[in-house]
Amino acid sequence: MREIVLMCAEQEAENVSDALLELGVLSVSVEDADENTDQEQPLYGEPGLEPEVFAWSRNRVVALLPEDLEAVIIVQQLRDQHVLELNDDDWFVRDVPDNDWVRMTQAQFGPIEVGSKILIVPSWHADDEITQQAQVDGKVCIQLDPGLAFGTGSHATTHLCLEWLAEHLQSGQSVLDYGCGSGILGIAAQKLGASKTDGVDVDTQAVSSTRANAQNNQVNVNATLPDGLAEGQYDVVVANILSNPLKMLAPMLSARVKPGGYLVLAGIFEWQTAEMQDAYAKDIQLQPWRDREGWICLVGQKSTD
Predict the structure, then answer these.
(1) Per-residue pLDDT averaged across 76-87, rounded?
(2) Is the pLDDT of residue 106 over 60?
(3) What secondary structure, in 3-state letters, does the chain show?
């Protein structure tokens, strides 16, 4: 396969990317043309918020070409449509190595240990020695492949929630995972002895992913969109999403916790602790439980009064 590499300025990168996709390329990526130099420019943004800068000062726009699309035609169409004024030295074509991309991608995802009780295992590592030993040691093994929904087990916030469940969830308790993503927290809760586990997400892909992953792990997680969640309260409500949605959902999530039950929140930066505590103060007093990589897990027990 081949890919075309185009040079463009910051204000042109988005339009060029859109135009390339409309012209029939298979994929587009934008890279810092000054990477690994003194002019390299890091870009930052909080998850869930609109970034202030969408590209670098100088960009490489890389587009994967189908076999029947010639690069010179792409360049001429960009010129004709006045999308980008390209000089001959502003673009080039390079071959893409014929690699086993599936195997290379899988190699990036190995088993992940979470605390002392949980091991997350991609399906292609199900028979590995580390997985077999974990089963012998009585660890909870969760089979989970990376997919479209959030929650492969590699993110710090997922680790925090899993660790809390492993250390505090009691056999027979009910669990609500709000913002279930891949379903990893609900699956873990079931394998740790939860009697009933419901998962909720606003994304239909996440609901489907949770159902499929629960089935692969031979556990029952009732995953649904918010409107499909029945009335009721839970011994544990866990929500690993982002700070703004968590603040908006404070009355609803608090109401879903049984008296004496626990609310476990993640997806929160350490500096957002006080504002999150204020958002829930009316119903539940949240306290920092554990932090990792700048993220914090807040936990509160609902009063029985």
Answers:
(1) 91
(2) no
(3) CEEEEEEEEHHHHHHHHHHHHHCCCCEEEEEECCCCCCCCCCCCCCCCCCCCCCCCCEEEEEEEECCCCCHHHHHHHHHHCCCCCCCHHHEEEEECCCCCHHHHHHHCCCCEEECCCEEEECHHHCCCHHHHHHHHCCCEEEECCCCCCCCCCCCHHHHHHHHHHHHHCCCCCEEEEECCCCCHHHHHHHHCCCCEEEEECCCHHHHHHHHHHHHHCCCCCEEECHHHCCCCCEEEEEEECCHHHHHHCHHHHHHCEEEEEEEEEEEEEHHHHHHHHHHHCCCCCCEEEEEECCEEEEEEECCCC
> What structural domains and CATH numbers belong to the chain?
2-98 (3.30.70), 150-301 (3.40.50.150)
Q: Which two tokens stand for residue 127?
A: 């028979």
| Distance in angstroms (rounded) separating the CA atoms of residues 43 and 161 | 28
CB 138 within 8 A of CB 89: no
Q: Are residues 203 and 226 in contact, defined by beta-carbon separation less than 8 angstroms?
A: no
Render pLDDT for 215-240 as a digit per residue (tens, 0 to 9). 999 999 999 999 999 999 999 999 99
- The model's pLDDT over 11-65, given as tens digits with 9 standing for 90+, comes to 999 999 999 999 999 999 999 988 888 888 777 665 556 666 667 889 999 999 9
Give the pLDDT mean for 143-147.
Answer: 80
Pair 273, 299: CB distance under 8 Å: no
Distance CA 268, CA 270 (A): 6
Tokens of 281: 């103060």
- What pLDDT is recorded for position 249? 97
